[in-house]
Amino acid sequence: MKLKDYLRLGWDQLQRRKVVTALCTVGIAIGSASIMVALGFGESIQHYSQKQMSFYLKTDEITIVDQNSDPNSPSKVTSSKLDLIRTFPHVKSVASFQDLGQFRFTVDDGKESYLNLKATELSTLEDFDSKFQQGGASDQDNNIVLNYGATLGILDAKTQEVRNKLMQQNPSKEQSETYRQMGAIPYPLYQKKISLKSNNNQEQPSNQSGTNTIQPSEVSVRVIGVLKKPDGLPDSMLQGNKAAYVSPETGLKILQAQNKSSTNRHVQYSEVRVKVDSSMNVKQVDEMIKKLQLTTQTNLYQEDRMKGEFAIVRLLLTGVGLFVLFVASISIVVAMTMSTHQRRRQIGIMKVLGANLKQIRNMFIVESSLLGMLGGFVGILLSYWVIWGINLIIIRFGSNRGDPVEILFISLWILPVGMFFAIMTGVLSGLYPAVKASRTDALTAIKRE
């Protein structure tokens, strides 16, 4: 007998026993769908978690720490080394940050607030996942970029004085909540000029000759960009995160204006961040940076720990799918055994006409394989329906931040895996009925029928 003959006979038997075929197909479909959903669920959650962790923990970034705390001695982190790191393979961008301290700023209409100022290459802000809500980076001097928190809680001096006085007179919870909400209102600063003055400046005393020292002066800068509000954080949590960025040249001018810098002072970087094209290449780039005698920090251990945890979850979910397939295989064994009993006369006639044991076994194995393949196809459809339903629930009842995103998905490599388990379940479940059918005595079977 040829393969097409086995297939034709097997398909004919499946069509005759519609109820049994449907029940066995449902069992295999549920089992194979459970495996595919388990694999898809594990891969999707791992992919989503890696993406979120990469955004918040920056697993694709390397932080270079300057351990030299003496401002009068040269730093190990030099501009020449940073230029060399920019040429390393897999390095997308390098940004250096110099902490200039806390400054109070005044808007042209008299309103004021404070911010923490940092000097960096403004063109690298977007390379490190900072998106602009307004404006953009510029290479011109006397420009400043604010984060979203720096635009909150900007009030004039008189309003602040009245608010503080009322708070002292009536320090109730409702009053505090009202003022907190007032401090969460953003103020339009884009394209406005603001005057910076250091928050740490003290009144300079007279020297021994009786003359006063040079007082720190205010520096005017223009707001050329405002960074986008971070997703998932309410305005109340951003009120204390007031940061601003200027170019290194502008930062030097500000320090000189505040009497904090001289031409002999060594540049001390508070932080240097290296963006790598993928977290898989972080270890390689990290080793190359360490050869420059620099101290680095990464979050790779967090990613490795997460992979181990999701491997356990994936194994557990796959185990559930295999258990369901095992239960489904029992139903196939029962169904095929009953089919063998009902088809004893057919088996006897086939043996009388010259069919050998191998052909009888193959006929039942092909039939059970077709049953597994049919269950596998239905399982693929079922798995996509389950994933679609879960995504629909997540989008409908989940957080409404940003555009709706489908978190769960099934990769193409999972489909043949699910089909393999479905077909193997059918084949293994059909072995015992096939062997039993091949041992049927032809004359006894015909005589009893």
From TrEMBL:
Record keywords: Cell membrane, Membrane, Transmembrane, Transmembrane helix
Record domain MacB-like periplasmic core: where: 21-149
Domain of life: Bacteria
One Pfam family it belongs to: FtsX
UniProt-listed InterPro entries: ABC3_permease_C, MacB_PCD, Macrolide_Exporter_MacB
UniProt topology in membrane: Multi-pass membrane protein
Annotated compartments: Cell membrane
Annotated protein name in UniProt: FtsX-like permease family protein
Organism: Paenibacillus phytorum
